[in-house]
Each structure stands twice: as structure tokens, then as C-alpha cells.
Write a structure and sequence with these properties.
Blueprint lengths: L4 H14 L21 H4 L9 H17 L6 H11 L2 H11 L11 H14 L4 H24 L15 H15 L1 H15 L18 H12 L2 H11 L27 H18 L7 H16 L7 H4 L2 H10 L3
Length: 335
């Protein structure tokens, strides 16, 4: 299952339709006084769309990833023109000033931090001159969130294992894509935290899904450890973490979640769970030896989860403003 031209066009059109859609908007915003009561675009002149700040960040990651994969695509001129309009030094400076406020210490931690770094890593992977210009503009904001993570990880004694935005395994997994290329000290800190939090995890029970999860608490830990450990060490860790998975246990990790109402923003998270599980299963399988008994189990689980979710990436704004990013992780970045 791969990213077809038609699917790429569908995802790009959806993202172009929401990264500048200011309303509806759910702000994560601390007001220190009446002067802080501002519209989303006044507060965030770059990442004001897509219902919330972090979704706008990874909406742009979706657009730039698709632009790199298909620079001659039908949506490419619109992506470039919109990026030229918004990825300016002035807009990034305003975003940086907001993030540096004392009341913004916990703003978007850790999910938005990791996606911003993932976005910077994507732009840095482009060869085109315009992408280098956008990357240069965004770099100060990426540096800010990298510094925030440097400061946060030493005081984060415990992982957060929920299936929503506060999941620390997901944040470290995305951050490593940036840090391995651009910040070796941060990469080392992420791997140290992963080993501290999860190196001794055994016999995962996988009490999931919950009603509004879009990440698998179990599989995100496994995918982080695939990325954090030396390849020769991952299979042994995984066998201890999910010792019965080749026999189909825990069964909940192998079956897609049911989504009862896609117009409900929280319930629509479950489409994201199916996509992110598909991503994790494909990536985990790539990190195991070819002879490992999990290979056919993982392939079947990935296929089932993606087939359940891909038809619903677009169609209702509660999912459409973010799901394409997770579809891309599954289709293009697994492993």
C-alpha cells in the first residue's frame, strides 16, 4: 500500500483547504490580561489555521512532504505561493515571541514541539532554493523548541503513555528525525530518555483503544525504541515487550478501532489511531529480521488498519484538518 498520485493530490488539496482556515479554532492560550484576548491570526500569524496550532504545523509538514515527493504536482504552485506568503522572517519572529512568553512554557509540549522540529527537518531535506529560504526563516523557531526539549528531558522523570497529544514516545520519535540530522546532543538526550523510560518495559498489556486516542500507547513505545536502539538490539527488546504478539495477543493491537461518529472531533481521533498503528506496524516490521515470526502478523495488521482508515482521511473537517499527516507517516515514512 503506497502513496498514489491521486491520493497525494487528495491530501494536498485537503491541507491547502485548512492551513489558512482560521475558524473554527481551538486555542491553547494563557491570558495574562485583557490585552492577550486576540484572534488566532493575531496570536499566530504563521500557524493560525487547521483548527489548532499543532495541526497547522503538521498540515504544513504534509504540504512540504508532498511537494518534495512530487514537485511538479498540480497543487505545487499553490503550495509554493502560500509558503512564500506565510513563511517570512516577520511571521516566524511573532511565533517565536509568543512561544518565548513566560506563560508559554508548556505551550504545545511535547506534541507541537516535536511536529515543529519534524517540519524543520522536512524543509531541510529539500534541494530547491525556495525551500531553503523557508527553512532559514523557520530555523529560529525550531531552535527554540529544540532548546525547550533540551531543558525539559532532564526533569521529565516519567514517560506519558496516553494515546493523545501528551504522549512522550511519539514526541521523541518525531524529534529524532530532526535531531539525528541537526542536533546530535538532542538526539543523545532523546535516546537516553527513551532507554530510561522504556528500556525495561516487559509484557505490555495494551489496554487500548480508549475513546479518543489517536496514538497507540503500546505501539508508539515500540516504534520509539526501534528508532532509539541499535538495530541489533531492537528484536530482543521487542520480544520482551510483546512476547505473545506472534500468537495474536494482545489481540486489540491487531484489529482496527471502530469509529462511530466522524463528526465528533474526539471520536474521529480513532481514525488517527488506525493510521498511526498502521505506521507503527510497518516500521516495526522493517526493524525486525526477515525471519522473525512477527513479519506476516505485522504486515497483516498494518494492511487492516490502513484499509480501515484511508477512506476517511477527508470528508469531515473534524478529521480532515489533521488525518492526512498520519496517513503520510504510514505510507511514506514507515521504517
Amino acid at each position: 500500500m503506497n502513496l498514489s498520485p491521486a491520493l497525494a493530490s487528495r491530501f494536498a488539496s485537503a491541507a491547502l483547504g485548512h492551513v489558512t482556515r482560521e475558524y473554527p479554532n481551538m486555542l491553547m492560550h494563557v491570558l495574562s490580561g485583557p490585552e492577550d484576548a486576540q484572534t488566532p491570526r493575531r496570536l499566530h500569524p504563521l500557524f493560525f489555521g487547521s483548527y489548532d496550532w499543532h495541526s497547522c504545523v503538521h498540515g504544513w509538514w504534509t504540504l512540504f512532504t508532498l511537494l518534495r515527493l512530487n514537485p511538479a504536482g498540480a497543487e505545487a504552485p499553490r503550495i509554493r505561493a502560500l509558503a512564500d506568503e506565510l513563511f517570512t522572517d516577520a511571521n516566524v519572529a511573532a511565533e517565536l515571541a509568543y512561544a518565548a512568553r513566560p506563560d508559554s512554557r508548556g505551550f504545545e509540549r511535547p506534541y507541537g514541539w516535536a511536529w515543529l522540529l519534524k517540519l524543520q527537518a522536512e524543509l531541510a531535506a529539500h534541494d530547491a532554493a525556495d525551500a531553503r529560504r523557508w527553512a532559514a526563516a523557520l530555523k529560529p523557531l525550531a531552535g527554540h523548541f529544540a532548546a525547550r526539549l533540551h531543558a525539559f528531558l532532564p526533569i521529565a522523570d516519567y514517560p506519558v503513555r496516553v494515546g493523545t497529544h501528551y504522549n512522550t514516545a511519539f514526541a521523541l520519535r518525531l524529534t529524532l528525525d530532526y535531531a539525528d540530522a541537526h542536533d546530535p546532543a538532542l538526539a543523545a538526550a532523546c535516546r537516553a530518555a527513551a532507554l530510561r523510560w522504556h528500556g525495561q518495559d516487559r509484557g505490555c498489556q495494551a489496554w487500548e483503544p480508549c475513546q479518543d486516542e489517536f496514538l497507540s500507547p503500546a505501539l508508539m513505545v515500540a516504534e520509539l525504541m526501534r528508532r532509539a536502539l541499535p538495530p541489533a538490539d531492537f528484536a530482543g527488546w521487542f520480544d520482551r515487550f510483546l512476547p505473545r504478539i506472534a500468537a495474536g495477543e494482545p489481540a486489540t493491537l491487531l484489529s482496527p478501532a471502530r469509529v462511530s461518529d466522524r463528526s465528533d472531533g474526539k471520536i474521529a481521533h480513532l481514525d488517527g489511531l488506525n493510521l498511526s498503528r498502521g505506521w507503527c506496524w510497518r516500521a516495526i516490521a522493517s526493524g525486525l529480521p526477515a525471519s522473525h515470526p512477527l513479519q506476516p502478523v505485522a504486515a497483516a495488521a498494518a494492511q487492516a488498519h490502513l484499509e480501515a482508515a484511508l477512506p476517511h482521511v477527508t470528508g469531515d473537517y473534524m478529521g480532515e484538518h489533521w488525518l492526512a499527516s498520519f496517513a503520510l507517516l504510514a505510507l511514506c515514512e514507515a521504517g
